[in-house]
Design goal:
7 strands, 7 helices, 16% strand, binds nicotinamide-adenine-dinucleotide, seven-stranded parallel beta sheet, globular, alpha/beta
Length: 244
């Protein structure tokens, strides 16, 4: 690992207190970055060296206040990783209350748009930067089985489409956006569905979930100059699940 790849860089991670968010924070710190974890909970349990900032990405005002605070006395660009996300717990579309559909789209899609816009404006004003959005194999590669999660799957397909759209709009201003689509990862997001884990693993070619650290390594790559020619790409890392 290059411990200097992000020296002098600032990176904000939404959902930074979550399973994948914390792994990304640890990885980027190990590579020299200054890291801010933006989350609505869990900020008291962050890895050493991570600055926790309370933020609800359902609220444009909350996001705007965080962005203003980050630039209050430091003009260096703040790169962005969108890792916040929620999933409905195995709900058939035919029975899903519209409020539940709205809640998932609200965090996973609307929230990503709000943060991309707020952070993207500042990056454009400073000549560029990088944004990585965590989508999912559930967006474009598979429909998960056996659980039903139509809102989540839809939101993640849209995150990839949004990433591509913004990559084209902002690419000429030096802002690179890319999406990372993991398969199953061992984090609290999946713990409620423990009875399904064996079914999921059966179809992963390598027979196991990804670790949060493996996801973090790919995020670090997309965020870094090593990925300079990646513009609006979706990287799929699913252990071969979608091939079966
Ligand atoms: N775990 C997996 O198997 C898996 C697979 C593919 C993609 N993903 C995606 O990776 C990302 C991270 O997932 P994870 O496994 O770390 O989940 P997680 O539940 O451990 O973490 C998600 C974090 O998002 C935060 N969050 C939710 N709503 C928020 C809001 N309104 N404002 C601010 N923060 C909010 C939560 O507080 C939590 O800390 C998500 O986007 C998820 O969809 C996860």
């Amino acid at each position: 690992m290059d411990t200097t790849r992000f020296t002098d860089s600032r990176v904000a991670i939404t959902g930074g207190a979550g399973g994948i968010g914390q792994a990304i924070a640890r990885r980027l710190i190990a590579e020299g970055a200054e890291v801010y974890a933006l989350d609505r909970r869990g900020l008291d349990k962050l890895p050493e060296g991570v600055a926790g900032i309370e933020m609800d990405l359902g609220s444009p005002a909350s996001v705007a206040a965080v962005v203003a605070g980050l630039y209050a006395d430091d003009d260096r660009p703040v790169h962005l990783v969108n890792s916040a996300g929620i999933v409905e717990d195995d709900v058939a579309a035919i029975d899903m209350p519209i409020e539940q559909f709205d809640a998932v789209i609200g965090v996973n899609l609307r929230g990503v748009f709000i943060t991309c816009q707020a952070f993207g404006r500042e990056l454009i004003a400073r000549g560029g930067g990088a944004i990585v959005n965590i989508a999912s194999m559930s967006g474009n590669a598979v429909v998960n089985f056996p659980q039903k999660q139509s809102a989540y799957n839809t939101s993640k397909a849209a995150v990839t489409a949004l990433t591509k759209s913004l990559a084209v709009e902002w690419g000429t201003s030096g802002v690179r956006l890319n999406a990372l689509s993991p398969g199953y990862v061992d984090t609290p997001l999946n713990h409620l569905k423990a009875d399904m884990h064996d079914i999921w693993k059966r179809d992963v070619v390598v027979g196991r979930f990804a670790t949060p650290d493996e996801v973090a390594a790919s995020v670090a790559f997309l965020l870094s100059d090593d990925a300079k020619y990646y513009i609006g790409a979706e990287l799929l890392m699913d252990g071969g699940y979608s091939l079966r």
